[in-house]
Write a structure and sequence with these properties.
The chain has 15 helices and 14 strands. With 379 residues, it is an alpha/beta fold. The chain has a domain of 252 residues: 3-Layer(aba) Sandwich (Rossmann fold). Bound molecules: NADP nicotinamide-adenine-dinucleotide phosphate. GO terms for molecular function: aldehyde dehydrogenase (NAD+) activity. This is NAD(P)-binding protein.
């Protein structure tokens, strides 16, 4: 077993997980509190060059030599252990979580069973300090039920006011949010919990494309046009995938330094700006609308000849209009309609307070990135 502190990582082969793992590899994290205060402890064999290095145990299903090699390119091979298993393997998850100083969970933010196993503890962790859990969730937790319709006085949320336990029980992800909130506040074997609620992320990353963009394009192809859930008048905050990864590292570093405690009040939005659903749907449908904006023309010019669904004749009409229910799930299918048809406008005030800035999103906004992201998703 490695003498280095340990991170148990769920979702390493995923879109955001790959970015987080890659950033972890380039980062030097402080040691867990119990180890740094003792000055030696189980780290007695650690050398100077090891400082800031963590041993990562990645839970991976369907391990193949190719998948393993891809992960070893992202994180220093000597410090990476592949643990074969799925989110349904309770014994594997419980045992790895119990051994870890830090758990990074960015696999499936609605997988209640695995979250329960990550957050239950039958004994105190090895060190004097409670272990840390950093969990990636989504801003859908605060989505309204606009179903794409215009709504008067749309609420804009700051994470400074966010108390998960006060959200309606019908909010998304509660099967995971509540056990995490409970683990962060209980007196017996508490865990220092930190949850980052990400907006939709789009940019092409290590894993090339966001999980939801492929199905969106498929709906457009099936319908013959780019569409919306309802009229598409709702707005969302969004974020570049690398800014989500940077947010995770910012919070984890602050947690390890003891600058943030964890538990109630340590929930972070990771998304900026607001974009109407029909704005991005229109870009997917018809680049020419976007190109009437001269400031974007130069950036998009290289894509004009071969990009986009309409210009590729993969769909029959430009622009966008509401999709019929035969194409998407029926209205009222909460998870789907909330993700795309709900208002989700957030302000990441807590992350800003830790010094995080959405640097990649500022360089390339959602509508700028979409052409490239669609092209990659089509390959
Ligand atoms: N994409 C977005 O815009 C967005 C926005 C906000 C929040 N989120 C949330 O963030 C999380 C990660 O999103 P993502 O876009 O990175 O998703 P993703 O690309 O689909 O990655 C999911 C990861 O979880 C793993 N996984 C899924 N089911 C598993 C199972 N049963 N057992 C073991 N591993 C499993 C996948 O492994 P395989 O490689 O084997 O499939 C992959 O590593 C999700 O919970 C999502 O709800 C996403």
């Amino acid at each position: 077993m490695s003498s280095k502190p340990t991170i148990f990582f769920l979702g390493a082969t995923g879109y955001v997980g790959g970015e987080i793992l890659s950033l972890l590899n380039k980062s030097h994290l402080p040691p867990p509190a119990a180890r740094s205060s003792s000055g030696s402890g189980s780290d007695s064999t650690t050398t100077n060059t090891d400082l800031g290095r963590y041993h990562v145990i990645a839970l991976v299903r369907n391990v193949t030599p190719e998948r393993e090699a891809a992960l070893r390119r992202l994180y220093n091979s000597d410090d990476l252990e592949i643990l074969e298993g799925t989110l349904d393997d309770g014994d594997i998850i419980r045992s790895a979580a119990e051994r870890a100083d830090v758990v990074v969970s960015c696999a499936v933010s609605i997988h209640g069973e695995s979250t329960k196993w990550l957050t239950t503890r039958s004994k105190a962790s090895g060190g004097a300090s409670p272990p840390i859990l950093v969990h990636v969730s989504g801003i859908t937790i605060i989505a309204d039920d606009a179903n794409g319709e215009e709504v008067a006085d749309v609420k804009e949320w700051s994470d400074l006011d966010l108390d998960i336990t006060k959200l309606p029980p019908t909010s998304s992800h509660m099967n995971c949010e509540i056990p995490i909130a409970e683990a962060g506040t209980r007196s017996n074997y508490p865990i220092r919990t930190f949850v980052l609620y990400a907006g939709l992320y789009w940019a092409t990353g290590v894993q090339r494309t966001s999980a939801w963009l492929g199905p969106w394009i498929k709906h457009a192809k099936d319908a013959g046009f780019s569409g919306t859930y309802g009229p598409g008048a709702n707005a969302l905050s969004h974020i570049h995938v690398r800014d989500v990864a940077a947010g995770v590292l910012t919070v984890l570093t602050a947690a390890l330094k003891g600058e943030v405690k964890g538990g109630k009040g340590f929930n972070y939005f990771v998304a900026t700006s607001k974009t109407e659903q029909r704005e991005w749907a229109k870009v997917i449908g018809d680049v020419r609308l976007l190109c009437s904006n001269d400031s974007r023309r130069a950036h998009l010019e290289p894509y004009l000849l071969h990009q986009y669904l309409y210009s590729k004749r993969l769909i029959e009409e430009p622009g966008c209009r509401p999709w019929p229910e035969g194409i998407i799930r029926p209205k009222g299918t909460r998870a789907y309609w909330r993700v795309f048809g709900g208002n989700q406008i957030v302000h990441p005030d807590r992350l800003h307070a830790l010094g995080w800035e959405p640097k990649e999103t500022q360089k390339q906004g959602l509508l700028d990135i979409l052409p490239q992201a669609i092209d990659v998703a089509l390959q």
